[in-house]
């Protein structure tokens, strides 16, 4: 049955939001940039054709994804906008024609474009005051990013202090924007070191660079050999005037900011297409990853006249290079088991170079995809690797299929533990029925320790793998029995990091029941379901004895989730794990609200609350959870819809100023407590 326009729009918005979360929050995309851009392009076309379904929260109306504050939030005084994309010379020509139609004859005669390579890295804003680097932030959602100043200071390519060769003083204020990236050579050296220490290899330079900027220890960032290309002067003190983009970049170079040497000023339209074709052919000769080219109008006054849309400037466009495809032989089809038990078929390939790296494995997604593509062992297949995602088998070459080939059948038994593999009605994925399959141990325990679950900082997947290999841990309770002597023997641990990890393990005991339920990886139980369950039952012991009827009474917990929960607790191993966690005192209760009520009233239903500064009785996370638990929305930025700004110690000056400008009330911590209880603060 064909989807209606509204259904397709809603589906695309949900899928794009999901993949944006994986990309921006976890640096772990599962689709290519190209596929993501195609979804966004299709959504944009549908929204333009059906303006009656306009939604200001749509991914087409903003940059990145909201709500990601791994470090302290930084509000961009000038938004870090994204760029619109084109994927063909025809679309690029249409864009150029749209721009030129809005220009006068004299402007057309002077029109020049700056051609830049599109670096596959992480966009960063760096602010200097009186010549000293004071703040560095990620793009975030375009309005609010993360403070990564400490880690940016660890990157040698970015000046800490502005000094010119001629001795002239720097401006009082300077904001520079650019791309943090990792060279291919640095990436290879890092993976060689990982290999020598027995730790997992990094997937690609882009994700590695992004992850390096999210390290809590700047010394780790410093060891990662990150690099930087400057691409924009965002703001500067009054008194400094530039006529062109290229002129501003040359100005920045005198302070030591690296500017890509392949930037070029172009006057003729034909030369633009020639330049793109040249770099498409040479992209793998570079020592860094690119995924396209950027075209910008050079004249800054002309840029100002052309302006921007809600999410992108009209004076610039990004041309995305097509994904690379290569032929190779499919040697075998095997199945891997993930932390959820999902059995994923993958292709074992004759090694082939795709996208600048050697590929010997590629995903086949699920049983239906294997059948749809019709691939068989021995086939010559087309493999694609676009940007920084897992390679994918696209199709086979019919004329090269061996005559003796046979159709591949999905196995009925788990290749690791021998338990039955089961595909549930209405689902495309197949699962190992053994929750304790050995293939799931490392990933399941790593998930238990992850930020979204018990948040045990310092215990990562590589450490879990070593602990499992040494037979020191097998189930979550084992983590709480680890000792100094056991951890100090692990690669990557010193005395300080061991003590820090042990403290993080102990601190995790006081986390909420919601987080524990997420960490237990019960099938179908995500964060929202976990929160609803914890709110209803309050303790792990109570939840363990819940009936199906009690579970299905909970909003958001239907038959599928309730059956999964019952199945989990009926398993003797699961019950034993939970009983041990209770004995160890691990997150067994959901905290009552501050006033001791068993049910938290929805005092903030429909109200938007923004929090800035440090509160004495809350962490940022618990304060926002308190707002959400009462039906409110915890936002990172102030708008006319904001009900109140909660201000603690050392608040953000820009938020205070914005609140005053919009007439949004600013409340202290005592008023915040009253707000939580009554929905009003006076």
Describe this structure in words.
- The structure is a single chain.
- The protein is globular and about 80 Å long.
- By secondary structure, the protein is an alpha+beta fold.
- It has five domains: 5-61, Helix hairpin bin (Helix Hairpins); 85-320, D-amino Acid Aminotransferase, Chain A, domain 1 (2-Layer Sandwich); 324-410, OB fold (Dihydrolipoamide Acetyltransferase, E2P) (Beta Barrel), CATH 2.40.50.140; 438-584, Orthogonal Bundle (DNA polymerase, domain 1), CATH 1.10.150.20; 608-678, Rossmann fold (3-Layer(aba) Sandwich), CATH 3.40.50.10190.
- Strands 12, 13, 14, 15, 16, 17 and 18 form a seven-stranded antiparallel sheet that branches.
- It starts with a helix and ends with a helix.
- The protein is built from 26 helices and 22 strands.
- 37% of the residues lie in helices and 20% in strands.
- A hairpin with a 2-residue loop joins strand 13 (342-354) and strand 14 (357-363).
- Helix 1 packs antiparallel against helix 2 (33-49) and helix 13 crosses helix 14.
């Amino acid at each position: 049955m064909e989807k209606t326009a509204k259904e397709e729009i809603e589906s695309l918005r949900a899928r794009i939001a999901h993949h944006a979360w994986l990309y921006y929050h976890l640096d772990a995309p599962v689709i290519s940039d190209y596929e993501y851009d195609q979804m966004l392009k299709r959504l944009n076309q549908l929204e333009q054709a059906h303006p009656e379904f306009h939604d200001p929260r749509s991914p087409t109306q903003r940059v990145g994804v909201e709500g990601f504050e791994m470090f302290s939030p930084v509000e961009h005084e000038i938004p870090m906008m994204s760029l619109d994309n084109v994927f063909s010379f025809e679309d690029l020509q249409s864009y150029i024609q749209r721009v030129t139609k809005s220009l006068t004859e004299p402007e057309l005669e002077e029109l020049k474009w700056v051609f830049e390579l599109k670096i596959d890295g992480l966009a960063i804003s760096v602010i200097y005051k009186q010549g000293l680097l004071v703040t560095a932030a990620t793009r975030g959602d375009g309005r609010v990013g993360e403070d990564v100043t400490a880690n940016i200071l660890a990157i040698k390519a970015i000046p800490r202090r502005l000094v010119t060769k001629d001795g002239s003083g720097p401006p009082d204020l300077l904001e520079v924007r650019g791309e943090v990236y990792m060279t291919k050579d640095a990436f290879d050296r890092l993976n060689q070191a990982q290999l020598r220490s027995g730790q997992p290899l990094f997937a690609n330079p882009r994700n590695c660079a992004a992850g390096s900027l999210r390290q809590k220890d700047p010394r780790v960032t410093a060891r990662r050999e990150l690099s930087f290309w400057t691409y924009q002067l965002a703001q500067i003190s009054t008194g400094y005037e530039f006529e062109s983009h290229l002129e501003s970049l040359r100005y920045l170079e005198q302070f030591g900011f690296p500017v890509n040497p392949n930037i070029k000023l172009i006057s003729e339209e034909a030369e633009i297409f020639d330049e793109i074709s040249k770099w498409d052919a040479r992209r793998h000769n570079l020592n860094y990853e690119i995924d396209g080219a950027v075209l910008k109008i050079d004249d800054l006054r002309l840029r100002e006249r052309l302006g921007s849309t809600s999410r992108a400037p009209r004076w610039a466009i990004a041309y995305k290079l097509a994904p690379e495809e290569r032929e190779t032989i499919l040697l075998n089809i095997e199945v891997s088991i993930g932390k959820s038990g999902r059995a994923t078929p993958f292709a074992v390939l004759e090694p082939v170079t795709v996208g600048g790296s050697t590929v010997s494995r590629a995903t086949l997604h699920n049983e239906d995809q294997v059948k749809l593509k019709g691939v068989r062992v021995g086939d010559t297949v087309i493999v694609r690797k676009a940007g920084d995602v897992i390679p994918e088998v696209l199709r086979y070459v019919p004329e090269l299929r061996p005559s003796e080939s046979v159709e591949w059948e999905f196995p009925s038994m788990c290749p690791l533990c021998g338990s039955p593999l089961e595909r549930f009605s209405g689902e495309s994925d197949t699962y190992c029925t053994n929750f304790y399959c050995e293939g799931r141990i490392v990933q399941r325990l790593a998930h238990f320790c992850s930020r979204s679950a018990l948040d045990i900082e310092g215990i990562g997947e590589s450490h879990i793998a070593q602990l499992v290999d040494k037979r020191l841990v097998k189930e979550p309770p084992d983590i709480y029995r680890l000792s100094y002597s056991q951890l100090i023997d692990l690669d990557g641990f010193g005395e300080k990091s061991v003590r820090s990890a042990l403290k993080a393990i102990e601190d995790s005991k006081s986390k909420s029941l919601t987080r524990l339920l997420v960490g237990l990886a019960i099938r179908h139980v995500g964060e929202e379901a976990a929160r609803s369950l914890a709110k209803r039952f309050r303790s792990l012991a109570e939840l363990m004895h819940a009936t199906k009827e009690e579970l299905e009474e909970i909003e958001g917990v239907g038959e599928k989730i309730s059956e999964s929960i019952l199945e989990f607790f009926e398993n003797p191993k699961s019950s034993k794990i939970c009983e041990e966690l209770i004995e160890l005192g691990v997150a067994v209760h959901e905290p009552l609200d501050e006033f001791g009520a068993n049910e938290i009233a929805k005092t903030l239903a429909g109200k938007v609350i923004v929090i800035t500064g440090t509160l004495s009785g809350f962490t940022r996370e618990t304060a926002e959870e308190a707002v959400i638990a009462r039906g409110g929305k915890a936002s990172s930025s102030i708008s006319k819809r904001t009900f109140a700004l909660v201000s603690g110690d050392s608040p953000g000056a820009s938020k205070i100023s914005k609140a005053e400008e919009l007439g949004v009330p600013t409340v202290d911590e005592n008023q915040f407590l009253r707000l939580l209880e009554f929905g009003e603060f006076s």
